[in-house]
Amino acid sequence: MSTPITTHDAFADAAPEVLCRVLNRVALITLNRPAALNALSHGMVRELAALLERCRADDQIVAVVLRGAGEKGFCAGGDVRALYRSAAQCDAWLPFFVDEYRLDYAIHTFPKPVVALMDGITMGGGMGLAQGAALRVATERSKIAMPETRIGFVPDVGATHFLARMPVELELYVGLTGATLSGADALAAKLADLCVPSSWLDTFETRIENLKWDSDVLAALRRVFEPPCNVVPHAALDTQLPWIVRHFDKRSTVERTVATLTQELGREELSREHRQWLQATLDALLGHSPTMLAVTREALLRGRQMTLAESLRMELGIVARSIEEGDFREGVRAHLVDKDRKPRWAPASLVELRAERVRHFLTSPWKLAAHPLAELGNA
């Protein structure tokens, strides 16, 4: 039996952009903004946080499932256009990021199993929601990425922490280029726990309804979402990994990576697939914000030694720098507002980028005690 999640009628006024109901003790939370690929507004972030806290307190709820409305995506990220508008208004952008990061932290540390259905587009802020889940389910329709450097931003929402699950070379490749991964790629890269046919998810509610709960809730949920005979598609990363390792060594600067990619492109005996990968990777590094490429590289390397809370605090500081004195507004203008696809980065090239600027972006605007996320514990 399915019922609206109304713990003492507490959810009766749930915003339409977030839907929630309980099915056999599982809270099914739906991001309900399909026309915008379920991009997160500030109101959605606040509503999700409130719902999670009510699920935490309700002993009748044993698990949470996060999903997106429509067939195109789980969540395309934050509402970047809204953030672009707020960026011109002093610190008006800050409350969104503080609340979003607190929500992501709450999912990572939630005491009950959370399942994230990463069907379709799952990028940026959508990854922040999904990567804290105990069971991350991708499909053949998944398009998974952290594309922030393309718009003069940094992979955030805990990315400097959760991308560290991968080998460092793969982390740098994904974080710097914003490469889009398939569901099979995500499984290979440890960004998903399952990759299943999207059609299998069409009937998961029936399987939840028929569940008999025992002490291992997560194991029971895995049986719901994993088909009995699951064949995972080929992962392109399996072929690309040797190339990635060759060019994204942790000791290589972004400039050095650009140089080695350019050099290898000059070889005549390359396969078509190899040449296409080299060109796409080089084009990404040459087209993205030089400042944020260098800052992101250093942040990803630092994040490998940090707790989640420390990573989120570091990311918020970088976000502040990129919005107030960096390339964020220009990147959004070029790619999402005017759509001329010709961002005027400052500086315009890696050669012009000074080390002092990179260090400045990695220096927090706040002392620890005054940091907006100072209260986050160590996890």
Short description:
This protein is of the alpha/beta class and 379 residues long.
Q: Structural class per helix/strand content?
A: alpha/beta
Characterize the main sheet: 7 strands, mixed
Shape: globular
CATH C-level label of the largest domain: Alpha Beta
Our measurement of the CA-to-CA distance between the termini, rounded to an integer number of angstroms, reads 36 Å
Q: Please, how many helices?
A: 17
Spatial strand order of the main sheet: 1-2-3-4-6-8-10
> Can you name the CATH architecture of the largest domain?
Alpha-Beta Complex
Order of helices and strands: EEEHEEHHEEHEEHHHEHHHHHHHHHH
Rg from alpha-carbon coordinates:
21 Å
Helix content: 40-55%
- Number of domain modules: 2
CATH domain fold name of the largest domain: 2-enoyl-CoA Hydratase, Chain A, domain 1
Q: Would you identify the CATH H-level superfamily of the largest domain?
A: 2-enoyl-CoA Hydratase, Chain A, domain 1
| Low-pLDDT runs | 6-12
